[in-house]
Design brief:
Blueprint (H helix, E strand, L loop, with lengths): L3 H32 E17 L5 E12 L5 E5 L13 E7 L6 E2 L2 H22 L6
Helix pairs in contact: 1-2
Length: about 140
């Protein structure tokens, strides 16, 4: 059986690790939001991948590929980081963030920019909240 002191140390160490991870994730997101250009991306194609579901049946997953224009009007493509078993509407658009110094460096993932930092902070708070009752041990 794990003693309360050991449990406190484990939860506290995980909390510190999550805190450090949160700092890096937030820095990455803020870098994208502050320094990257924000443009509209238009769905132009899909990248196909295959995997097996729980029953062992193979299924197709679609990764949307969006086209966007840089500041000089040159067209570029970026793959979304999300996959789906259904295709999006052909008129689907998304927000694309690209590096103005290197327009090939882009992201079409709003999940990465907005939700991942929130999730990291949430789990950091949970770790420290769990460690709080053990603080007097």
């Amino acid at each position: 059986m794990i003693s309360n002191k050991v449990a406190l140390k484990i939860v506290f160490i995980v909390g510190i690790g999550m805190f450090i991870l949160s700092i890096f994730v937030i820095k990455h997101s803020l870098t994208i939001l502050i320094t990257y250009e924000k443009v509209q991306g238009f769905l132009v194609d899909y990248e196909l991948s295959y995997d097996k579901n729980d029953e062992g049946l193979e299924r197709t997953k679609y990764t949307p590929i969006y086209s966007y224009s840089d500041l000089q009007g040159n067209l570029h493509r970026v793959s979304s980081q999300s996959k789906s078993i259904k295709k999006h509407n052909s008129d689907s658009t998304t927000i694309v963030y690209f590096d103005r110094n290197n327009p090939e460096v882009a992201t079409a993932s709003n999940f990465e920019i907005f939700w991942v930092p929130f999730i990291a902070i949430f789990f950091t708070v949970i770790c420290f909240w769990l460690a709080y009752p053990f603080r007097r041990i």
